[in-house]
Specification:
elongated; Nucleotidyltransferase, domain 5; 15 strands; alpha/beta; 495 residues; seven-stranded mixed β-sheet; Rossmann fold; single chain; eight-stranded mixed β-sheet
Length: 495
C-alpha cells in the first residue's frame, strides 16, 4: 500500500508516530515493557524499575501517545503530592515540551525542532493542565487530594512512585478507571519498609503478577543503555561499602528488599518459613502433647488479626501454623470471624476440645469481643496482661526465638511474613505503631505460654551437655577389657 492510498486516519497516525519519535525513542527495555500495553494485550503495566531507567520520560511518552491517538481523552499523571509533580515534570517543561530537540547531554537545543508543539491548544499553569487541539487533556494530580479522585473520569492514568501515595487515592480512583477501562501504568522504585503506601503497593504488585490483563515486570537501572554503567557501578559500590545492600536491590535492581539498618528483626529470614504440609508432618505425631494457642487482636474498624500455633513443651519449639488478617469491616464482627477461627482450630487439631485443649487469648483492649463470643458461642477467651508485659521485652523475646532457631512459620502466614519483613524503626529510632497486628499476637502468645528464654536456654544447654549425670551398670563395664574380672577388689572374698 502506497502513501497516496492511505486513509486520512492512517495518514494522521503515521504523522503522530513520526512526530512522537522525531527526537525521542524508547530504549529496548522500555519497548519490552510498553509493547503489551500498546498492543492492548494488557490494561495495566506495573513496572518496578531502578534509578535512571528512564521512567519519567517513558510515562510522559505513553501519556502523549494516548492523548494524540484518542481525541477527547482525559489523561492523568498522578504523583504522591501535587508539588512533587509540578517540580519534576511541569516547571521544567518535561511534559509540555516533550519531544523537543535536545543535545547529547539531554539539554534543550535553543531554536531546535518542536514537533509536538503544533498539537497543543493551551497550557494552564494554574491547574497544571495541557490541552490539545483534538480535545484531549493531560493533567498532573497529587494523591493527597484523594477525595477529589472520586469525581475524576480518566481515560489513561499514570501512577509515579506509587510506594508513597496516600493510600486512599487508589481506592477512590480505581472504580472510576474501571468504568472506562482506562489503562493504568504504575512506575517507580519498589518500597522500603515504612513507606507510606508500601502495603498497598505490594498487594497490588502481587495481584498484577497473577492477572492476565496485567503485566508486572522488574527492570534494572542497567537496562537503560544511555546511562553510563560506570556511574551506576560507582553508586552501588558506595552503598555496598556502607552495608546498604537492601538499598542497592531496591534502587538499582528494582527488587523488593527487606531489612536494612533500621530493621527491628534483622535476623528474620525466609528460612523460618516452611511449607504447611512440612509443619503438619512435624507435629502430627505429637499433636496431643503440644500446647495449643489461639491469639486474637480484635479490631472492628482497622484489622482483626488472629494467630494460631503450638509449642512443644519439651523442646520449646514454636510452630506458627495459621493466621487470619481481616480488614473488611463487614467481616470483623464476632458472628463473621469466630466461625473462621473455630474452623481453623478444628483443622489444625482435629477432634480437640476448644475449651480444654486450646489456650484462647484476646487483646484486653477489646473487651467487646470476649463478651460477644461468650454470649453467642459460649466460648471463653482470656484477656492479655499487657501492663505486665512491655512491648520491647516481647519483641526481644521474639528476636531470641529467631536467633536460636526456636520457631517455624507456615507459608500460610503471608501477612505475618510481610509484617516481620517490613517492621522497621522510624527516622527517630522509634518502634512503629502500625502494621504489627500479628506481631502483637506473637507477643501475646509467648506471654500466655509463660515463655522464658533463660529457662529455655538452660534446658537446651543441659540437653546438649556431653557430660553424663547418670550411669547404668552396662555403661560402666563397657570400657573394661573383655577378659577382666570386674569383681576383683570389689567384693570381700574370703580366703
Amino acid at each position: 500500500m502506497d502513501l497516496i492510498s492511505l486513509s486520512p486516519s492512517d495518514k494522521l497516525y503515521l504523522q503522530i508516530m513520526d512526530d512522537l519519535h522525531s527526537n525521542w525513542n524508547p530504549h529496548p527495555g522500555q519497548v519490552k515493557v510498553g509493547m503489551p500495553l500498546i498492543k492492548k494485550d494488557v490494561n495495566t503495566l506495573f513496572i518496578q524499575c531502578g534509578r535512571k531507567w528512564g521512567k519519567t520520560d517513558f510515562a510522559i511518552y505513553l501519556l502523549w501517545r494516548h492523548a494524540l491517538l484518542n481525541p477527547g481523552s482525559t489523561c492523568y499523571y498522578i504523583t504522591p503530592e501535587l508539588s512533587h509533580g509540578r517540580e519534576i515534570i511541569w516547571h521544567n517543561s518535561r511534559l509540555t515540551q516533550f519531544g523537543r530537540e535536545r543535545d547529547d547531554m539531554g539539554r534543550i537545543v535553543p531554536g531546535g525542532k518542536e514537533p509536538l508543539r503544533k498539537y497543543i491548544k493551551h497550557v494552564s499553569n494554574v491547574d497544571s493542565r495541557l490541552t490539545l487541539k483534538n480535545g484531549s487533556t493531560i493533567k498532573i494530580v497529587g494523591s493527597e487530594n484523594w477525595a477529589a479522585a472520586n469525581g475524576l473520569t480518566p481515560d489513561f492514568v499514570v501512577y509515579d512512585e506509587f510506594k508513597v501515595f496516600h493510600t486512599q487515592f487508589h481506592n477512590e480512583m480505581n472504580p472510576n478507571r474501571i468504568v472506562r477501562k482506562a489503562p493504568l501504568v504504575i512506575i517507580g522504585t519498589p518500597p522500603k519498609p515504612g513507606d507510606r503506601n508500601a502495603e498497598q503497593y505490594l498487594e497490588f504488585a502481587e495481584e498484577c503478577s497473577d492477572r492476565r490483563d496485567a503485566f508486572h515486570i522488574i527492570a534494572s537501572s542497567y537496562d537503560n543503555p544511555f546511562t553510563p554503567r560506570d556511574e551506576i557501578d560507582r553508586e552501588i559500590e558506595k552503598l555496598r561499602l556502607r552495608g546498604e545492600d537492601d538499598v542497592i536491590e531496591r534502587e538499582y535492581f528494582g527488587k523488593i528488599a527487606v531489612g536494612g539498618r533500621n530493621a527491628i528483626f534483622p535476623m528474620y529470614d525466609k528460612k523460618q518459613i516452611k511449607s504447611h504440609k512440612e509443619l503438619l508432618d512435624a507435629i502430627t505425631r505429637d499433636r496431643k502433647k503440644l500446647d495449643w494457642f489461639c491469639i486474637t487482636d480484635p479490631g472492628s474498624t482497622t484489622c482483626f488479626a488472629v494467630l494460631l500455633g503450638c509449642i512443644n513443651p519439651y523442646t520449646k519449639h514454636l510452630y506458627i501454623m495459621d493466621e487470619i488478617y481481616e480488614v473488611n469491616q463487614e467481616n470483623t464482627t464476632v458472628r463473621s470471624i469466630y466461625p473462621r477461627i473455630d474452623a481453623k482450630m478444628a483443622e489444625l487439631f482435629p477432634y480437640s476440645s476448644v475449651e480444654d485443649d486450646w489456650c484462647k487469648v484476646y487483646d484486653e483492649a477489646a473487651a467487646w469481643f470476649s463478651t460477644e463470643v461468650m454470649h453467642q458461642y459460649g466460648i471463653y477467651f482470656m484477656p492479655t496482661a499487657k501492663h505486665m508485659n512491655k512491648k520491647d521485652h516481647g519483641l526481644s523475646l521474639i528476636k531470641d526465638q529467631l536467633i536460636h532457631g526456636l520457631v517455624s512459620i507456615s507459608d500460610r502466614c503471608v501477612k505475618l511474613n510481610w509484617e516481620m519483613q517490613n517492621y522497621v524503626k522510624d527516622s527517630k529510632g522509634n518502634i512503629p505503631k502500625k502494621n504489627d497486628h500479628l506481631i502483637d499476637c506473637w507477643r501475646y502468645l509467648n506471654a500466655a505460654a509463660n515463655y522464658n528464654m533463660i529457662e529455655v536456654l538452660e534446658t537446651l544447654k543441659q540437653k546438649n551437655d556431653d557430660s553424663r549425670r547418670y550411669y547404668s551398670m552396662k555403661d560402666d563395664y563397657k570400657s573394661l577389657k573383655k577378659h577382666d574380672d570386674w569383681t576383683f577388689n570389689i567384693l570381700p572374698w574370703e580366703d
